[in-house]
Amino acid sequence: MMLSPDMMAVLKKHQKSYPVKVGTLARDLGIEVKETDLPDNVSGTLTREDTDKWVIRVNRRHSKTRQRFTVAHEVAHFLLHRNQIGNGLTDDTFYRSDLSDTREREANRLAADILMPWPLVRLATEGGVHSVEELAEAFDVSSAAMHIRLGLPT
Question: What is the extent of the structural domain holding 65?
Fold first, then answer.
């Protein structure tokens, strides 16, 4: 998972405090974020509209923590896989669903890195935030996401 120095700089700019403002990060990358009605099994999509406009749509019926992870996941697809959108395999859209392939795992891993960067997790624990639930609340992610991030059973 290699990101360009420019993309790394944009990420680092948004990872100075927690919770990471993932919507602002998306906008700084030139991606519009919209809450919309999607099927229950679809958390979000990343779509290229026209030639240079990108839109993330998140399922408005999902919890706020799920929406935040979805935006981070779709940002990860943008950073890692945007050159693959429109190649005939994806019909110009990545769907965040129950799929579990290599690209989905890569996007999940980077989404966790975006929302819960290790330096900030260490800072939080050194500052007295110790339980998984407290960390999840501080980072505005689900307890399950924080358990996975910390390598703990869910």
Answer: 5-149
